[in-house]
Amino acid sequence: MQDIKTIKECIDAFLDKGPLGGKLQKSALKESWAEVAGESVKKRTEDLWFRDGKLMVRIGSGPVKHFLLTNRVKLKEKIQEMNPGIEIKEVVIL
Fold first, then answer.
1. pLDDT tens-place values along the chain, 94 residues long
2. What is the CATH number of domain 7-93?
3. Would you list the domain boundaries of the chain?
4. pTM to 2 decimals?
5. What's the CA angle centered on 62, arms 87 and 56, to 5 degrees?
6. Contact between 21 and 31 (Cβ < 8 Å)
7. At what angle do helices 72-82 and 20-37 cross, to 10 degrees?
8. DSSP alpha helix (H) spans, the chain
9. Which residues are bridge partners to 90 per DSSP?
10. Under 8 Å CB-to-CB from 72, ≥6 apart: which residues?
11. Strands 45-51 and 90-93: what pairing?
12. CA 2 to CA 89: how far, in whole Å?
């Protein structure tokens, strides 16, 4: 058994191994998306999910989709900064 010394370590271990970890990460990604992309992009975001290291974003507006495609590297970096526990390999705009 692993020796856990602080409450923070205990909570981190629970989240890493427990069933809530993925749900909390997903929630954190959605909040980060709203903050990084802005309110107008958030309104036009139809769906957002994380799979296999890729943040998948479905957008319902052509001009917004084009804007995000041209800025997806910056978006990835900002979201990664806000969520250091999640490794985002790529942002895919659909």
1. 566 578 777 666 666 665 555 566 677 778 888 888 888 888 899 988 888 888 899 999 899 999 999 998 999 999 888 887 778 899 999 9
2. 3.30.70
3. 7-93
4. 0.69
5. 20
6. no
7. 130
8. 7-17, 20-37, 39-44, 62-70, 72-82
9. 54
10. 91, 93
11. unpaired
12. 30
Whose structure tokens read 């998948």?
56
Nearest CA to 93 out of 61, 30, 78 is that of: 61
> What dihedral do alpha carbons 33, 55, 77, 40 form, nearest 10°?
-30
How far is Cα 49 from Cα 10, in angstroms, rounded to an integer?
27
**Token reading at 46:** 């139809």
Distances (CA, A) of 80 to 6, 9, 18, 90: 26, 22, 22, 10
Beta-bridged to residue 51, according to DSSP, are: 54
CA separation for the pair 92, 70 (Å, rounded): 11
